[in-house]
């Protein structure tokens, strides 16, 4: 029996479409390249995880994201070099290194976090129906509120 609504395949395809719109909304990477490389997307995933889980370890990030340890370590190193995160020795276990967001936000981090989605959504939906843009934006706000910290 068919149940109206989104099925697993449609949800997966919607997720991919939203990722593409999200990429379009991000400011271009430094160096003038037009698109973010796959490694840039991994850095964004790791940065998001660190923001959601302060004072975490690389192993914990690997566990939560299912990314390979080498990629997480590389992403943390890039974030540290950019001034987005800092690492500190765990005071309770001096063998562990904790990763946290930097106390001061770098200019690039502020630029990426401040990127709006209106232009990218308008490009994806078309400029002919501002009400549709408003409805989709409201739906995305609801999804983000309910799902952001559950993935």
From TrEMBL:
Pfam families: MarR_2 (PF12802). InterPro entries: HTH_MarR-typ, WH-like_DNA-bd_sf, WH_DNA-bd_sf. The keyword DNA-binding applies. The keyword Nucleotide-binding does not apply. Transmembrane segments: none annotated. GO terms for molecular function: DNA binding; DNA-binding transcription factor activity. Residues 50-96 form the HTH marR-type domain. Keywords: DNA-binding. This is DNA-binding transcriptional regulator, MarR family. It comes from Krasilnikoviella flava.
